[in-house]
Amino acid sequence: MMASLPPSDLQASAREPGLLQAGIDSWRIWWTMLVICLEERLVYRGDFILGTLMRFLPIVTQVFLWTAVFGATSRGDIAGYSRNDIVAYYLLTMVTRAFSSMPGLAGGIARSVRDGSVKKYLVQPVDYIGYLLAARIAHKLVYYAVATLPFAAVFFFCRAYFPPLPDASTLAAFGLSLVLSFFLGFFLEATLGMLGFWFLEVSSIVFAYMLVQYLLSGHMFPLDMLAGIPSGIPGVSLASLVHWLPFEYTAYLPAAVWLGKIKGADLVWSLVIEAGWVVVMAVACRIAWRRGTRRYSAFGG
Amino acid sequence: MGRYLSIFLCCARACLVRDMTFRANFLLECLTSVGWMSMNLAFYLLVFTFTSEIGRNTGWTREPFFAFVATGLIINAIVQAFFMPSAEELTEMVRTGGLDGVLVQPLDAQFLLSMHRFDFSSLANGFVGIGLLVWALLRMEHAPPPIAWLLYPLTILCGVAILYSLIVMLAAATILMGRNQSLYDFWFYLTNFSRYPAEIYAGPWGSPLRALCTFVIPILLVVNVPARVIAQPFAGQTWGWVAAAIVAAGGALVLSRVIFQAALAKYRSASS
């Protein structure tokens, strides 16, 4: 099938001998994909800005809910979080989710398998997962460009809820955990989408994943609140059980790092585990792609 | 009126038949819907391990609060089952010109556009809500008086009417704008404010917000009034809340009708 296609410049350059040239060509393709995706995202910038601003609305109700909870109890803190800490936590999880959430990624992959559009990536010298990653980075870059202003305004407005600015090493750990959360979120969802090669329709699986993810990532509440809740396994709390799963790295960890809830060796260990999960999910995604494309068949033009 | 009722029932029957054709999918949708709701209930249970009340001296202790949540589930289940699916289709109908086919029908366009497609799987949450309400009422310190039982369904209808009006107004915006995906997101974020008792919106920022969501966009009356009627001691001020809900529902229905008709008057066909 490949031989019947007219040789394009891209294909010609991809066949160039030499490791360096191949690397440059690969980078050029990836960069072109990124620029195209950036332009695509900016077409609907009005809708994008409106959607970004609206995402802050649920936080408002959470702030009032927890203020009411603290108002009704004599406790100074809940699971180590003061009222201000909880508000800051929710705001920080918004930042984390801005990195780790991948709306439409899994569904889009499954749809491309179902409607056959994935086959163009099988005949072109473009790596599908690489293309998806470029598209997602473009999506995020546009999102950050648009969202920085409302985020900065909200954080400035709510600055009283935050503890003093963390030291440089904590800030670096926070930044690293955010970048890793992006890759973890991407590979988690992409792997789910690859299940489309086996099930065609993955919307129910994605919805079930979203439910579990929302609950166990710490998006809904700080996971430290689960410390006293039994898991059903003798001597193991629900919080300990959740720490073994990858979800907390997509919302809880960066927020907890900023607020100083995780420090020293625990912090280093958490980042190592997060990086480990990224590698595991990247490999799982690649294996799912290889096995999926091996069993995939398409007909027609 | 009889003709409209028979068409409504005919559409409902057709949608039920379609849902039952894909029974496994229907069951899965019910389960995922209940799963999402269960997760929220788990969160509220967790909150009540740290406090006995939502807000000091508000009366929203655990059982009344779960009656509040149950009321919200019932109202949202009705709206999601009977009105939301039609509204979601409207965007595509405007964009593709399918709205023309509706406008030439010898029926009221608002009726046909807002009540032609139903999603019965959304009613699953409503049934769980009824179960939760019974559970909460059986454990409450005070039983609701007979008048509360009479006013409860009425105020639930008022809540449904307010939400329906909001959907119709957003549908009108769809007709004017051609596409308004963000506005439907806005509907979900806005109704988020109705998920909690009005008392939590207090303080220098909460009070104006509460006034805005009560008198301008009466979203706080949707769940708060029926829940207050059934789950809080019935007092003189409860009548004030009931009257406010009735007035808000009537006003919202009239306003949404006017806005929808104005939007239709500005509609230009997209079909060829």
Q: Can you tell me about this structure?
A:
The complex is a heterodimer of chains A (301) and B (272). Chain A starts with 8 loop residues before the first helix and ends in a 6-residue tail after the last helix. The relative contact order of chain A is 0.12. Chain A has one domain. The longest helix of chain A has 32 residues. Chain A is mostly helical. Chain B has 272 residues and is an all-alpha fold. Chain B has one domain. In chain B, 38% of the residues are buried. The interface between A and B is medium-sized, with 32 and 35 residues.
Summarize the helix and strand pattern of chain B as letters.
Answer: HHHHHHHHHHHH
Distance between the termini of chain B: 34 Å
One letter per element, helices H and strands E, the order of chain A comes to: HHHHHHHHHHHHHH
Total helices of chain A: the number is 14
Helical coverage of chain A, percent range:
55-70%
Number of domains of chain A: 1
The largest pleated sheet of chain B is described as:
none
Q: Would you tell me the overall average pLDDT of chain B?
A: 89
Rg of chain B is 20 Å
Mean pLDDT of chain A comes to 85
Quaternary structure:
heterodimer
- Give the count of structural domains of chain B: 1
Structural class of chain B: mainly alpha
Q: In DSSP terms, counting alpha (H) and pi (I) runs of 4 or more, how many helices of chain B?
A: 12
Portion in beta strands of chain A: under 5%
Largest interface: A-B, 32 and 35 residues
Total beta strand runs of chain A: 0
Shape of chain B: globular
Question: Which features would summarize this protein structure in a list?
Answer:
heterodimer, A: 301 residues, mainly alpha, 14 helices, globular, disordered N terminus, B: 272 residues, 12 helices, 76% helix
What's this, in brief?
The complex is a heterodimer of chains A (301) and B (272). Chain A is mainly alpha-helical and 301 residues long.
